[in-house]
């Protein structure tokens, strides 16, 4: 399986930091004259036509995978809860998982 970093970003509706993050990770970035929902619509259409797995916050399996990280941390700490777990912020989907 090939993983292609891509970004479909609403034109003039994201911060420079968000754009730099995508580009610095080698993403092919498309700027579209729409909002987040318009970008998601395009991504959904693409993933129905080509063999790409959509692993975004709307996919329940992504959240299950993020919960798995908590179990793995506990296993590595011999089932003792650490005092701190530092999680990247992004859009904070990791926190809700």
From TrEMBL:
InterPro entries: TrpB-like_PALP, TrpB-like_PALP_sf
Domain named Tryptophan synthase beta chain-like PALP: residues: 21-96
Record Pfam families: PALP (PF00291)
Source superkingdom: Eukaryota
Name of the protein in its database record: Tryptophan synthase beta chain-like PALP domain-containing protein
